Amino acid sequence: MTKIVFVPGNGNSTKQDNWFPSLQADFEKEGLEVVASEFLGPVLTRESYWMPFLIDELKVDEEMLLVGYSSGAVAAMRLAEKHVLKLP
What we know:
The chain has helices spanning 20-29, 47-57, 71-84; strands spanning 3-7, 33-35, 65-68. By secondary structure, it is α/β, with parallel strands linked by helices. The model has no long low-confidence stretch (mean pLDDT 82).
């Protein structure tokens, strides 16, 4: 089953903000599993908090899809760039 991980932005953005709730409902109707967790330190995005949380707590791997909003999109790209993608 495909898992989708929501990565909200900073400034106290949560899984209940913006378009996350409606997108989660749409994904779940299609039978996809959505991981929508509250992030550590949501006031200010910090790689030192978010990368361990994504990797160690949420167990993000190369099979999951990340949906980021604002700085959450930057965190998702940083994760792919540094921890998931294995480029030559």
